Amino acid sequence: MCGILGAVNATINATVLDQIKHRGPDASGAKSFEINQNSVHLLHRRLSIVDVSEAGSQPMFADDRKACITFNGEIYNHLDLKEKLPNITFNGHSDTETIVNYFRTFGIYNTLKDLNGIFAFAYLDVENEFLYLARDRFGVKPLYYYFHNNQLLFSSEIRPLRAFLNPAIDKGSLMSSLRMRYTPSPSTIYTNIYKVEPGQLLVFNLKGNLSLIKSYFVATPKSLGTKKGDYRNLVKEYGNLFEKAVERQLMADVEVGILLSGGVDSALVAAIAKQRSKTGIKAFTVGFEGEHDNIDEIEYAKQTAAIIGLEHYTKKINSLRFLDSVEAIAKIVEEPIGTTSIIPMYFLSELAASKVKVVLSGQGADEPLGGYNKYKGLPLLEKSRLFLPLLPLTKSVRFIYNRNERFRRLISSMQYADDVSSLVEFNAISSVSEVTNLMTAASRKVYRNALLRQQNAFKQIWKERTPEQASTSNLFLYYDLRTSLADDLLMYTDKISMHFSLECRVPILDNDLIDFIESLKSGYKFNSKRGKIIHKDFAKEYLPTTITERKKLNFKSPTEAWFRQQKNDIEKVFTSDKAFSTLFDMNAVMKLLSNHQNGRNLEKQIFLLLSIYYILKQNTEL
């Protein structure tokens, strides 16, 4: 797990590389090439996990030195792939050396479909004069790029590109983040800086002036959710795949720990890891000081750690330096995020990094298995959307609609016949009018139009990537896994953990396991009363029912209360910066804070505004 950086026809140096030193404090490297008057630079910062010797250094050449790679991630099945390369002379045992030679032997397209892991890389085929950028199929590892006027820059993080370009804030992206609580790929908050999408391959032709071809290396399945059979056999098959996934991801030449919540997901990963690991497993949990028992997971996690036999470390967070931590997090994550679980992740990563270099996480179960409470409304949505569109809301329903975000999202999603438009409403934390009214009166029309253009572009991408045969319930899980999970939870997990030079792995997003989950009929995964059904039933083989049947706490922070306690301080923050107050209607912002103070839970919206404030502030400090 590392940081990658590179450029074609642009000057880039070690000083710029140092901006992502936190991603790889152990070593650095750079290689340069001249190909048809195109200057190509590949740079790398290394966090040594597999083959910590010099043999694992990057950028790395293939055995015949006709190709080179700068790689971020882990390929968990690389030993299986290595067996198909009997004629290669290997200098070490890293997965990077396996894949650069696998690419060279079998080609980029044949190799990508065989990789089971998390990755973002730049692969230079010197002989055939192509440069390839790719990101793993679920978007665990980020990769950003700028391509304009025969110049290409790419990086694991935005900051090196931002320093080179000094870009403006993108209006459509700003509005999308306010509405969706994250910025959907391929956009970022900045103009002309883009994300490589999950499962996407970018091919740059170096034979003359740079040209770009975009494609997806994972084919869209024709159907979802058709598999059924004897339930006991399905649970057994699920369990076998889950165990293999965890065992694969113990691959490391350093100690591996676990981020332990109070729930079943991380507990199951921990139990299997403890059984398969050759060493003990350290576990890490954070909680909160004060009266936050409804979301504090430390006591539950202590019970889990004791049952499994883990060496357990905990830390309590208080609100004294809350706004300072929000500013630090906004700078680390680089894009607006409205998910307040990012705060405990910051302190959890800091705690874990003090003891280990690699951790396993239970992240990634809720989206494919229907674990969130919002999914309980999908069976109703699927039936009601056929006859409810555009029905007028009664006064009593309108009251609930305006006060309850989850209810508003469900009712709004029923107004659209097509799945992608319905999905946008199902996940939007604010309506188009709500986010538009936050802008100054003179600019509302411009920002509204920019938002609608970007939403239409997002819808077009996913209409083209939609399986032909799938229920709405299965489709929404499929979409969320590749959109909100990738661009929200996985994005901030990567940025935060790597800020502390900590590699975070997600065994539940194993390719084989997800393929199986997505093949199942939705009833095996969730219904209107239960989520993660097959997952919890398998977990009973490792864990007592006191863990498998615990009420879901969610991984979150007490920001709802903290924002009310610190309302005056937040008001001062928002009114102290000219760039922010010029962009936003301050009366509308103050009203939002007052509404939260008076009982509406608007913590996501406030957290987003704080993120945007600190991003704007950071730009003016360039």
UniProtKB/TrEMBL annotation:
Superkingdom of origin organism: Bacteria
CDD domains: Asn_synthase_B_C, AsnB
Family according to the record: Belongs to the asparagine synthetase family.
Pathway: Amino-acid biosynthesis; L-asparagine biosynthesis; L-asparagine from L-aspartate (L-Gln route): step 1/1
Active site: 2 (for gatase activity)
PROSITE patterns on file: GATASE_TYPE_2
Binding site for ATP: 259, 286, 361-362
Domain Glutamine amidotransferase type-2 positions: 2-207
One Pfam family recorded for the sequence: GATase_7
GO BP, sorted A to Z: asparagine biosynthetic process
A GO MF label: ATP binding
Catalysis: reaction(s): L-aspartate + L-glutamine + ATP + H2O = L-asparagine + L-glutamate + AMP + diphosphate + H(+)
Keywords linked to the UniProt accession: Amino-acid biosynthesis, Asparagine biosynthesis, ATP-binding, Glutamine amidotransferase, Ligase, Nucleotide-binding
Enzyme Commission number(s) of this protein: 6.3.5.4
Protein's name according to its UniProt entry: asparagine synthase (glutamine-hydrolyzing)
Annotated GO CC locations: cytosol
